[in-house]
User: Fold these one by one.
Assistant:
Number 1:
Amino acid sequence: MKTYHHILTIAGSDSCGGAGIEADIKTISALGCYASVAITAVTAQNTLGVRSICKVTPGVVADQIAAVMDDLHPQAIKVGMVNDAETIRAIATTLCRYPLPPMIIDPVMVSTSGSRLMELDALSLFQATLLPLSTLLTPNIPEAELLAGRPIHGLEDMKAAARQILQMGPKAVLVKGGHGQGREKTDLLLIDGGAEHAAVAQAVLDGFGLSVPVFGMVKDDRHRTRALITPGGHEIGIAANPAVFSFIGTIQEETHRFSIDYQRRLRRESLASELDQIPGVGEKRRNALLREFRSVKAIRAASYEALCAAVPAGVARAVYDHYHPKGESPCV
């Protein structure tokens, strides 16, 4: 049976299907992953502009996220349109209750047609609560200008704005250059790391090459991407493919390592919770059992003798009886 990587997308709905939740589901599915959603707003829009926005109440947004996180345990999260302070607070508060996988935040503040999608009083809260949680932040030029509080007229301005945004907490910033002037468009990827990160990034970029499909991000055949690694200003130039695809390579590696650790942590927490319900175990004996048995499955399969090697016989008997049907005697 095929196993799908699970990605949770938190975003608004786009009635014409060109952006938002609808575009996220298409992209995630095209990449062979499974998409779950938390809808933050419903928009009425088309290629000409945004006609109206109806936000989903913050409590419902939080419930959607919690429902997915409690059961499906996504391996990556993407956050898109969050247009008001209450929703931002609900998202940040809910996410912080869980161990977070790699998270990409697309700060949807201005639509392609120029309509403002984030309320003015929400910006500072967005910068303070959600930005520090992000593995990768992907603003376009107008959004980078809003976040950095400075105009962007060229590559040097993009670099300065990216450095400033990086100080707000994300591990990497991808400034998308599609709104730039001239035929040649430049994306800028700024990673919080030193020379060793530059070597890894270069290897990932080289590994993708021209074989990576471009899902509508390239404006023309002269669209270029640059990756800027800091500190030290080590700059890498890449041709043809937007930097977001190169960064996916590192995120995939991080996600693989994270998913293994994350599943182990879930199993350990599940066992700890069950042990806490058994009379007489207590914190000290619970921790002793956790050191020897890393999951409910492992402790259920353990013999009475194995349990006695970890904790006193009375506690071992209580634990053994808890995980075995009544009338089944321990092998002693």
Note: The two ends are 41 Å apart (CA to CA).
Number 2:
Amino acid sequence: MDLSQLHYFRTAARTGNLSQAARELFVTQPNLSRSIARLETELGVPLFEHRKGKVVLNEYGRIFLSGVENVFGELNTCMQTVQRLYENSQKMLSLGCSIDGFLPDVLQAFSRVHPEIGAHPLPGRDPPAPQSHAALLPPAGPDGLRPVSPPGAPPVGA
């Protein structure tokens, strides 16, 4: 049993017509019929009653369809969770700085303003000094970042 068989079964149950289901699924009607027949063989029960060109779920088919809908619902939820985790992992800011204690202050301010973006210092430096360097810096802007002057230029705000 595979997901395509379950998808075919679900579509045939929804449309009530194998030819229409085959058109929607872009498969031939004989291939769709064979796939559903293999599914019924694997389950050991018929799922449909055939009536004048239509297919109608029998009791077993209705019960199985309920389970198939649950499977696809869980699969969809799982896919959304994985995609959301991936998207969140792509919003990660990694920074390094040679001034002890400076970067944690900046990252903390940035994280308050942009909680949707993860931020962490790159490893390799000594732990931050106990004294905060925030008092030595110009005030942070609305984005949580502090303006920095290029080397040799007068300090920002001076």
Note: Strands lie at 48-51, 54-57, 92-95, 118-121.
Number 3:
Amino acid sequence: MREAQTTIASLRSVTKNYGAIAALKEVNLDVRAGELLAVLGPNGAGKTTSIRLLLGLSQPGSGEVRVFGRDPRRHENRTRVGAMLQVARVPETLRVREHISLFRSYYPDPLPFAEIVGSAGLDGMENRLFGSLSGGEKQRVLFALAICGNPQLIFLDEPTVGLDVGTRHLIWQQIRKLTSQGRTVVLTTHYLEEGRRERCVAAGFARRSPDIAGRAGAARAFPARSATERAGTDQQQPRRCLPEDH
């Protein structure tokens, strides 16, 4: 039997309202060290709200949010976390290398510049202005910025929305690489194939009590399947909702 993994981020009985709209209602969520956790749900189900709470960008109406056992707003937490948000804006007049160099300067132990560029598939684009890039190329830059700080915990909020096949495949390759290095990845998606057509070694794809958003229409956890059914005999990595290799 596999030993229990350490919980490095959590929501405990968290409720978050935007005016009269309940985005989250009494949500409990554990993120375990070294795993890939995918949160599947339609638009408006509370996925981005959950990520923002765990990043310390928003505060719950009630309940408790913890990352590495502390308030996610603590400086020491921010240097261990990377994020690629669904809606992100960076200056379009800076070059790709300038963005990466700037973000690397924010962290005490950043990844090497060349490793970041290679991981994000940006070789040859370093001197291009961000504003001149295609949509897929911009997503690659945002992914690069998310891993700049050599993070232990990475949040990817719908990272493959609107991407071409090549960029989507590259990002999934890098997600696999990150988890193989022992890093923890939390991603959100509303693509059923990314939450359902996966290799899993643990039952379900997300643990929610009750489900995120606490209302009808929010995605529900898939029923448990055995490791043999979902992933053959590959039971080494505690990955959940990893798409099939292409």
Note: The helical segments are 47-54, 75-78, 96-104, 113-119, 135-147, 165-180, 192-196, 227-231.
